[in-house]
Design goal:
heterodimer; A: alpha+beta; 2 domains; 18% helix; 24% strand; B: 296 residues; alpha+beta; two-stranded antiparallel ribbon
Chain lengths: 462, 296
């Protein structure tokens, strides 16, 4: 039972902002039985209630219903737990006080540290004194440790609260070692000169020290060093996009654990955390996610034939469907509504010099019609008759194909990280192709998507 | 092209993706093989709702919602720092001189080692489509997103690879066919050794969110685009309309007593939530959407 090393799981935990004192309860999301493209069902799951004063899990329960806001309509923050696991004989198991004792260690030997930052102003101004950082330093025990974001360009004594971390005291029912990260409230902080009082929770930024308030991407040197998209910060609307100097309480960073024995660090591990806005459609999921990026980095873009599965392909289609279901595809197609074309890939393409035309035939892109199309594709995949499906997918190196056929490939009407039309990760793409949907039977994506696919050669009806 | 041999991930081979099984509450192991990094990546800790998982965080980051994942690639090469969304070198180590001089050069291609020899991965593509007169034409050059462009390079972590740069500073895009200079650079490991956590020296605290909007509430109003509808919805409270089409609300629309008509988002406008609404009242103004309908 010798502990060889530690891990913190999950390796990346997403927290979500909210000002309610009640963290969001735990729940599962399940595809409804018999309705593979129905809205996923949300079911309450075992929720751990933390006594923040004592640092213990006071009880657990399974909620009957999940409410994402409290009675005062405040959003409940998503506050993840991060667990310590121990490598014992080639297997990771939850690290408990009992396992510590078997290794002649105790809970008092365990130390934690959290370091998070918000470098949004720094990313624009390039001034290192615009970095907002919080560091708890190494700590023991089970008290709350505030993540106070401090910055050299703040007014003396001011900080932005990024939430807190707490080492939860292991108990009989929950003997594992874990830390909870509770994110901030989702507040906005301002600079001394350009804020509007009702916008901000506090005035923290000293405009005499730093240039964030009054900054403009127009003046970036060199111009291409700005973020992409650029000019994305609260501004005074003066035509130069002059920054108001607003800051938020999002952050990302690292949580570390170490076990000290005889004044030496014997074991250590870290994980990453981030705090962002709520997921406002919690029963729907994006078609391409950070998990897909990490999986591709971990396992590579190639998919072994033994790893492909119809269920994986179905999940990709399901996620595309879940996105389409919440989009006004008429607007996103570039169809004029009330005489105007909405911001969409159709209009973005025209910024590149392309003719401004709708992506799909304007008459067929109503949300209901496109949902039906995805349902047809899904059904065809299930019946293994969609061997043509791989042909409608946009390859990663086809994102610059703005021909009519190129723009109609899938995922359609969405923007990728380069600002061009979205492609799946290469691993996702290969998963779809590998699941048997690789046979070309149509001239182009348009034909495949909006007409009946051609019967594969050699499979014509007799 | 092949990748390095990876630890076997037994449970990843079950039909339903592991992340889905974790969200459904059907995969909650009490023991994980130390080398099974995919399992570790997909693990949902006790008490954590699905929204804590990376599988609920969007990655078509332009710039993103929870994190701007593009930042993870900026320091993939030791000695240089790339722009998160462009093939421009924005920072370099002071020495050696060969590396210091690369600032504001463009990384045009990288030679990725493989079992069957090195393969050149272009990092720039030509954008092509019809011009306003309908004639198909070149519309310019564009750097590929790093995540897919570097998909095979990650396996070369810890190795030196040959990179092709523009021979001089280039603030305009550079064709992949233009002359280049070759510089050998060391590729950082993407993950900490033996773990599924993004390596410490790849991204520092604050860097994964640094290129998001400040404040994020501003982007919810300003973007007027709906590429993240599964997290930040667009079309909600949808009902069937006469003629078989649909009607509903824009998520950013001030709600009336009846669904729709949908108000197109012209970067704000009458009937849509304002910057002030987002800054001062986002928690009460923005709705959660369950089964596509407003829910508190």
């Amino acid at each position: 039972m010798t502990i060889r090393s530690l891990r913190i799981l999950p390796p990346l935990a997403i927290a979500r902002l909210g000002s309610s004192p009640e963290p969001l309860e735990n729940y599962d999301v399940r595809v409804p039985p018999g309705d593979p493209l129905g809205f996923r069902e949300i079911h309450g799951a075992e929720t751990l209630v933390v006594d923040r004063r004592r640092g213990t899990i006071s009880r657990s329960y399974t909620p009957k219903a999940i409410h994402f806001k409290d009675r005062r309509r405040r959003v409940k923050p998503v506050a993840p737990f991060l667990e310590v696991w121990a490598d014992v004989n080639g297997s990771l198991v939850p690290l408990t006080t009992s396992l510590l004792e078997k290794n002649k260690l105790s809970i008092d030997d365990v130390e934690w540290r959290a370091q998070v930052g918000n470098h949004k102003a720094f990313r624009r101004t390039g001034e290192t004194d615009d970095r907002i950082d919080a560091d708890t330093g190494w700590f023991r025990g089970h008290g709350l440790h505030r993540l106070a974001g401090r910055c050299p360009n703040f007014i003396d004594g001011k900080s932005i609260p990024f939430g807190d971390v707490q080492f939860i005291r292991p108990g009989r029912k929950f003997p594992g070692l874990r830390l909870r990260f509770t994110p901030a409230k989702g507040l906005i902080y301002g600079a001394v000169d350009l804020h509007r009082l009702d916008d901000v929770a506090d005035v923290v930024y000293d405009s005499r020290r730093g240039s964030w308030s009054g900054y403009s991407d127009d003046n970036a040197v060199p111009p291409l060093s700005v973020t992409n998209p650029g000019w994305i910060y609260a501004n005074i609307g003066d035509g130069r996009t002059t920054s108001r100097g607003y800051l938020d309480d999002e952050c990302d960073g690292i949580v570390e654990v170490r076990i000290i024995a005889g004044r030496k660090t014997r074991l250590q591990a870290f994980a990453r955390i981030g705090a962002g806005p709520p997921d406002f459609a919690p029963d729907s999921f994006p078609v391409r996610t950070i998990a897909d990026e990490l999986e591709q980095a971990l396992l590579g873009p190639d998919v072994a034939s033994s790893d492909v599965s119809p269920e994986w392909t179905e999940e990709i289609i399901r996620r595309a469907f879940e996105t389409v279901r919440l989009q006004n595809t008429v607007a996103l197609n570039g169809n004029p509504i009330n005489g105007a074309v909405a911001n969409s890939m159709a209009s973005q393409d025209s910024d590149l010099g392309r003719a401004e035309t709708p992506i799909m035939a304007p008459a067929i892109v109503d949300s209901v019609a496109l949902q039906a199309l995805h349902q047809s594709v899904f059904a065809a995949l299930r019946s293994e008759s969609a061997v043509w499906f791989g042909q409608v997918l946009r390859r990663y190196d086809q994102v610059g194909d703005l021909t009519d056929a190129g723009r109609r490939k899938m995922p359609a009407m969405m923007r990728g990280s380069d600002g061009l039309h979205l492609a799946l990760t290469r691993r996702q793409h290969n998963a779809v192709i590998g699941s048997g949907n690789r046979q070309a039977t149509a001239k182009d994506a348009e034909a495949v998507t909006f007409t009946a696919p051609t019967t594969p050669k050699g499979e014509e009806p007799r | 092209m092949t990748t390095k041999v990876r630890p076997k991930n037994e449970t990843a081979r079950a039909g339903v993706p592991l992340a889905v099984r974790a969200m459904e509450g059907e995969w909650a192991p009490d023991r994980i093989n130390t080398g099974a990094l995919h399992e570790q990546l997909s693990y949902r800790a006790a008490g954590n709702p699905p929204g804590t998982l990376p599988t609920t965080a969007i990655s078509n980051c332009f710039p993103g919602l929870e994190l701007d994942f593009r930042n993870v690639w900026k320091k993939l090469f030791v000695g240089i720092e790339m722009h998160e969304s462009d093939n421009l070198v924005v920072g370099t180590d002071p020495d050696p001189e060969e590396i210091r001089k690369l600032r504001y050069h463009r990384l045009v291609a990288v030679s990725i080692p493989g079992a069957e020899g090195a393969v050149v991965q272009p990092l720039v593509i030509n954008v092509r489509g019809p011009n306003p007169r309908g004639k198909e034409t070149d519309l310019g050059l564009q750097a590929l997103e790093w995540s897919n462009a570097f998909a095979y390079l990650v396996a070369a972590g810890g190795q030196r690879v040959t990179c092709a740069f523009s021979p001089r500073q280039a603030f305009d895009p550079v064709s992949p066919d233009a002359p280049t200079i070759s510089v050998t650079l060391l590729v950082r490991s993407f993950f900490e050794p033996g773990s599924a956590v993004i390596a410490r020296d790849l991204v520092e605290p604050g860097q994964l969110t640094q290129s998001l909007c400040s404040p994020w509430q501003n982007d919810y109003r300003e973007c007027a685009c709906y590429y993240w509808a599964a997290s930040r919805p667009d079309f909600v409270n949808v009902e069937a309309a006469p003629g078989g089409t649909s009607t509903g609300d824009n998520w950013m629309q001030v709600r009336g007593s009846q669904a729709g008509p949908y108000l197109p988002d012209g970067f704000g406008g009458p009937g849509l939530l304002t910057y002030e609404d987002m800054f001062r009242r986002w928690e009460t103004e923005l709705r959660f959407e369950i089964a596509g309908r407003d829910t508190e």
